[in-house]
Specification:
Shape: globular
Radius of gyration: 22 Å
Largest sheet: none
Order of helices and strands: HHHHHHHHHHHHHHH
Oligomer: single chain
Structural class: mainly alpha
Number of strands: 0
Length: 261
């Protein structure tokens, strides 16, 4: 933008990808696709991924798994990490392509090597399970830590389980509870369940049966099956008025996370 334009008060042209991302953030996928579409046809790899993701999820357009794979393949072949991760999802689920977990694992690895947090998380899970790729708890922990550093809550939950179950590390209930607390605050239901159980039993954290019941209630409401075995005992450990107060607290929204410093 020239200095004359600035003197006239003219605004610089908005970046098309930024405009499309803003439209998608407010839920207007039709507007986003109107921008991403021409960019994708012109060879923009991230736009190709975004168009593919919209067809995969039926966002602003009718769901079409086969067309999603077409666009995601173009993005992946161009080296887009998100495209590789989303294409891996398709192969892992058999959505638009024949199910191929080994192809998915290879794509997750490529995306993880580029620093994609979701891919790091999925590959970490695969390396712990050891059914698709050879098990490697050390690499699983490294990838989970990398994903957690980017705010990935499922990876934080897995790190809690790694420390709780001594998977490649000495058992450390306190470290497990710390990771579960981080993920629980982000709304991860399984982490809420495990943190609630730890608080109820005093494992890795000082025993706090009231807070434990609150987290277990949140986890149960979020669909975590891990909470169910502890709920009755956690409620029975409280006086009726305490249990009622805990239920009201569990129904309230989670506090907003503190801003990074």
């Amino acid at each position: 933008m020239s200095w004359i334009s600035r003197l006239r008060g003219e605004r610089p042209p908005e970046d098309p990808m930024a405009a499309a991302d803003a439209a998608a953030a407010r839920g207007d996928y039709a507007a986003a696709l109107a921008i991403w579409g021409p960019l994708a046809h012109a060879g923009n790899a991230r736009a190709q991924n975004n168009v593919g993701a919209c067809f995969a999820g039926g966002l602003g357009v009718g769901r079409d798994p086969a067309l999603a794979v077409k666009w995601l393949t173009l993005a992946a072949e161009a080296g887009d990490a998100a495209g590789r991760r989303n294409l891996a999802h398709a192969y892992f689920r058999g959505d638009g392509v024949p199910e191929d977990p080994w192809r998915a694992a290879a794509l997750y690895r490529q995306a993880a090597e580029a620093g994609d947090a979701e891919a790091e998380d999925m590959l970490s899970w695969m390396l712990l399970e050891g059914e698709i790729v050879p098990p490697d708890p050390g690499e699983a922990r490294r990838l989970a830590e990398a994903a957690a550093a980017q705010g990935n809550a499922p990876a934080m939950t897995r790190l809690g389980m790694i420390h709780h179950n001594a998977l490649g590390v000495p058992r450390d209930p306190a470290a497990a509870a710390r990771w579960w607390a981080k993920a629980a605050a982000l709304g991860e239901a399984d982490a809420q369940a495990m943190l609630g159980a730890a608080l109820h039993m005093g494992q890795g954290v000082p025993r706090d049966r009231y807070a434990g019941f609150v987290w277990l209630l949140r986890a149960h409401a979020g669909g975590s099956e891990l909470a169910y075995p502890f709920l009755r005992a956690a409620e029975d450990a409280l006086a009726p008025e305490e249990a009622g107060r805990a239920r009201r607290e569990a129904d309230a929204p989670l506090p907003l996370p503190e801003p990074a410093r």
